[in-house]
Records
---
Amino acid sequence: MTTLREIEIVGGGLAGLALGLGLRRAGVPATVYEAGQYPRHRVCGEFIAGLDEATVTPLGLAPALADAARLREVTWYFSNGATQRQHLPAPALALSRYALDARLVDAFTAAGGRLVTGTRVDPDDAREGRVWTVGRRRAVAAPWLGLKLHARGLRLTGELELHLGDGGYIGLCPVEDGRVNVCGLFRQRPDVTGQRGTILLAYLRAVGLGALAGRLAAVEICDESCSAVAGVGFGRGPSDGQLRLGDAWAMIPPFTGNGMAMAFQGAAHALGPLVAWAHGETTWADTVRTADAALRKIFTRRLAVASALHPFLFSSKHQRWLAAAARARILPMRALYHLLH
Ligand SMILES: Cc1cc2nc3c(=O)[nH]c(=O)nc-3n(C[C@H](O)[C@H](O)[C@H](O)COP(=O)(O)OP(=O)(O)OC[C@H]3O[C@@H](n4cnc5c(N)ncnc54)[C@H](O)[C@@H]3O)c2cc1C
């Protein structure tokens, strides 16, 4: 019997755990090194758009996603009061990261994967067989701040609400146990301050979404779920001959609800080249090249379209144009969805 080479995965988020699970299902030895612990809340809108069967099946993700809510409609709220309903061509899934990451950990370890938590691998320690799924880059100069909390007792006006303010946008998405995920991306401002849940409310008021802040002030905020991340950078990660997946390969703006699907899709596309390497059929350099080329093929267009649209969501001037186009029914929602997913 041949001994297969082991794959080491640095970063136990969605890309890393899904890749580990896929490798174990293919019989390849895999270890995931994770700096943190499980379960834990993460800054994320917890709304998965554009995930396809061709990704779910080879990675064995179906059981972890089986009871996720299926959402068919997004209601956009523009800062001038206009609204636009968007029917999704395929249902989006909604499930907390607290639950999803824990389920993937269980599936990976049950499949024989080795998980090492509380261990931060040196980012300069690159080696053959090592895959980097370390998540978003901390870009010191980036002005973006991500804030998230779970609320209980919050009544939604649609299946999923997306509110655009002047300098930030925020999604409201129902997850499990009667909780609603409230997660926003804001242009960071030194004059807006607060603790845990209150900082999100302060940002909502600062970007002109006071009515939404009022709705949140009237319901229970799940204190342990409040999380924040500053210096979020978008776009491609470094191309330095290392195999990177998920946000470490590229981070798409969160309004698309596609970052989690991209983490899974990246893992699914890297699976074949990595299994071949584990069997000794290819060199590591060819493995990295093949996986990277596959990712560029599927992600380049959606990243470009998302970064072109992103500035429109942050200024009320641009939103007036979007709202007018929506009212005139000339906003090509369906075409944009397909370009972005
Ligand atoms: C405000 C905001 C809202 C979002 N909303 C959505 C949404 O609604 N839908 C959606 O699809 N996407 C959303 N995203 C994006 C989504 O969260 C990411 O695309 C997704 O988490 C990427 O998964 P990943 O595995 O690449 O990274 P992560 O899930 O971030 O995992 C990376 C892991 O690597 C670990 N790590 C880092 N460095 C090391 C190291 N040196 N050694 C060991 N471990 C390390 C970290 O601890 C972490 O656990 C949002 C992002 C933001 C900022």
---
Amino acid sequence: MDPQHIWYPSYGYGEQKGLVIGYYNTGNAARTYAALSPRDREARAVAQGVKIHGEKYRTELEQSFSIAWHRVPYIEGAWAFPNTTSPGFKKLQTGSGNVYFAGDWMSEISAWQHGAFWSARYAVQALHARVMAG
Ligand SMILES: Cc1cc2nc3c(=O)[nH]c(=O)nc-3n(C[C@H](O)[C@H](O)[C@H](O)COP(=O)(O)OP(=O)(O)OC[C@H]3O[C@@H](n4cnc5c(N)ncnc54)[C@H](O)[C@@H]3O)c2cc1C
């Protein structure tokens, strides 16, 4: 089905209320949902979820929000996978003048928080080395 993934709460599992990721999709399925209004996305995802969980999936839903990452200005996608062996990438990693770049996309572990931390640390270390070198 086009939700592709339904994600159950990763904490407080089994409690009275929780957060469910109603769809986590890519490709054509993501484009199908992106073309709908948030209200219609919800209706579509719930209709699919009801097939798995029954009517409670609809009646117990309090509220929802959704985001189509490829329609977010400047980011235009959920993840970036640059060519990490290219000279351009290495140059960006070393910064330019007083400017240092950090973000998961600026690491070898794009699309993960681990990469974001790694990249921030890399930038701070580079700055530190520069200051210590006088
Ligand atoms: C759908 C999805 C699912 C994910 N699932 C996982 C997962 O399960 N596990 C995991 O580890 N990672 C996951 N990630 C990746 C994780 O969210 C990112 O790796 C992490 O948030 C990147 O952190 P960051 O600090 O590099 O960038 P961001 O969190 O994107 O922070 C950048 C910030 O800069 C702000 N900004 C942008 N431009 C400007 C400007 N001009 N001036 C001021 N502020 C600006 C933005 O608003 C944003 O708040 C997922 C990402 C997505 C999109």
